[in-house]
């Protein structure tokens, strides 16, 4: 970073501060990870200088001799990794990818069915504050109050009654395995397009630690970061029959030129995800999440659905007498980074909810294993107890212990030395 330091020391200092923060904290935000040095290099390459509106072989700018092969590699690797007939690697992020699905298959006012946001769904699955809930008619399904799991009987009954044109499965706070075959059967029965949003679990799907929606859903959207451990970008996978509509929706429907440096980094991440060691990594993510969930449950924490099948754990703090927001803020000060989150049937407001959401992808990348999960649960418990007692003294102690632990676990792409 010598050139950045010379040109803009203020920004350089903030970047270095962020790197140290990532190094010194237990990062449990379920949507975050650490990318490899190779992905970092591709993201920061001279490809950021290029403009490549269109698709490979059909560009509106000249000088694509190197960009076209890069995009074609990313597309080929995505198809091979997920077993999909078609892949589009141009969406800028997950929300634009989901918007492209609407543009491809729906008209304004059409019905779209998705998991309710407070139940673990995503804003772009038809929630009221999103364009998807304003421009289309939302139909929302929920989880069962007694199990915290998606009520597939309700999904079918709603779909038969409302006849949505599009059904989403997946979400942003779903700790259990998604039943793609059951959703596919409901979509066939009702004549809806089934879209699977696997932004959170794409790395687990790629590594064989979660069932794949490919072969069940006609369209699959995903970000390329999170458990897939790539850059901040997105992809849309589809059947060959749906390919033309998807591509037209992405460009020229929603976007101009793709971000070629991100495309290259996606290609690198997909190559990494195809390696045998990535499959082992994906299974370790799940093992760590289950171990952490068990350790939290032993300390009396109420877990939505009682545990997890993937990377994500959702905690309801109601029984602890603490709200999610102050708990998350205290944990951040103590060196544990996660986010406050609504839980199903939450009586509190979205900006001050009852829960915490955490995930194990980033700490698994750092090399932490199941043996460390009880200690992390103990740190979380100590800080939450401190919030309940309005005692912040524990935070500095926990932060120091975490720094000491993490000093022995290298961070990809940065060294504290």
UniProtKB/TrEMBL annotation:
Reported function: Catalyzes the reversible interconversion of serine and glycine with tetrahydrofolate (THF) serving as the one-carbon carrier. This reaction serves as the major source of one-carbon groups required for the biosynthesis of purines, thymidylate, methionine, and other important biomolecules. Also exhibits THF-independent aldolase activity toward beta-hydroxyamino acids, producing glycine and aldehydes, via a retro-aldol mechanism.
Enzyme class (EC, first level): transferase
Residues the entry annotates as binding (6S)-5,6,7,8-tetrahydrofolate: 117, 121-123
Protein name per Swiss-Prot or TrEMBL: Serine hydroxymethyltransferase
Organism of provenance: Actinomadura parmotrematis
Similarity comment: Belongs to the SHMT family.
Subunit structure: Homodimer.
Pathway: One-carbon metabolism; tetrahydrofolate interconversion; Amino-acid biosynthesis; glycine biosynthesis; glycine from L-serine: step 1/1
Gene encoding the protein: glyA
HAMAP family registered for this protein in UniProt: SHMT
N6-(pyridoxal phosphate)lysine: residues bearing it: 226
Pfam family, one: SHMT
Enzyme Commission number: 2.1.2.1
Cofactor needs: pyridoxal 5'-phosphate
Keyword Electron transport: no
Compartment(s): Cytoplasm
Domain Serine hydroxymethyltransferase-like: 4-380
Site description Plays an important role in substrate specificity, residues in chain: 225
Top-level lineage group: Bacteria
Coiled-coil residues: none
Protein keywords: Amino-acid biosynthesis, Cytoplasm, One-carbon metabolism, Pyridoxal phosphate, Transferase
Subcellular location, principal: cytoplasm
PROSITE patterns the UniProt entry points to: SHMT
Catalytic activity: (6R)-5,10-methylene-5,6,7,8-tetrahydrofolate + glycine + H2O = (6S)-5,6,7,8-tetrahydrofolate + L-serine
């Amino acid at each position: 970073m010598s050139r950045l330091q010379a040109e803009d020391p203020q920004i350089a200092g903030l970047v270095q501060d962020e790197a140290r923060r990532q190094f010194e904290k237990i990062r449990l935000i379920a949507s975050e990870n650490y990318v490899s040095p190779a992905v970092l290099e591709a993201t920061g390459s001279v490809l950021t200088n290029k403009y490549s509106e269109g698709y490979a072989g059909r560009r509106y700018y000249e000088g694509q001799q190197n960009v076209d092969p890069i995009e074609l590699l990313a597309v080929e690797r995505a198809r091979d990794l997920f077993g999909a007939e078609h892949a589009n690697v141009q969406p800028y992020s997950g929300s634009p990818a989901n918007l492209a699905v609407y543009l491809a298959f729906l008209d304004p006012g059409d019905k779209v069915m998705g998991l309710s946001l407070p139940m673990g769904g995503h804003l772009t699955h038809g929630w009221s504050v999103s364009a998807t809930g304003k421009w289309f008619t939302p139909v929302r399904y929920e989880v069962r109050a007694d199990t915290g799991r998606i009520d597939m009987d309700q999904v079918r009954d709603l779909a038969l009654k409302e006849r949505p044109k599009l059904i989403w499965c997946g979400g942003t706070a779903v700790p259990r395995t998604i039943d793609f075959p059951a959703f596919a059967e409901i979509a066939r029965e009702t004549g809806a397009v089934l879209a699977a949003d696997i932004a959170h679990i794409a790395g687990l799907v790629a590594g064989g630690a979660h069932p794949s929606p490919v072969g069940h859903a006609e369209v699959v959207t995903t970000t390329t970061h999170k458990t897939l451990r790539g850059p901040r970008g997105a992809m849309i996978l589809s059947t060959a029959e749906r390919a033309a509509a998807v591509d037209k929706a992405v460009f020229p429907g929603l976007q101009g030129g793709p971000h070629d440096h991100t495309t290259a980094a996606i290609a690198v991440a997909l190559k990494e995800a195809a390696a045998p060691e990535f499959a082992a990594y994906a299974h370790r993510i799940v093992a760590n999440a289950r171990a952490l969930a068990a350790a939290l449950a032993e300390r009396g924490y109420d877990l939505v659905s009682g545990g997890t099948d993937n990377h994500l754990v959702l905690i309801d703090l109601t029984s602890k007498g603490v709200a999610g927001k102050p708990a998350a803020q205290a944990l951040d000060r103590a060196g544990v980074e996660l986010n406050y989150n609504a839980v199903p049937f939450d009586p509190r407001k979205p900006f001050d909810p009852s829960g915490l959401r955490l995930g194990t992808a980033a700490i698994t990348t750092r090399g932490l294993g199941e043996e460390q999960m009880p200690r992390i649960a103990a740190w979380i418990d100590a800080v939450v107890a401190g919030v309940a007692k309005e005692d912040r003294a524990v935070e500095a102690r926990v932060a120091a212990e975490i720094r000491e632990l993490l000093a022995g676990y290298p961070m990809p792409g940065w060294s504290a030395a």
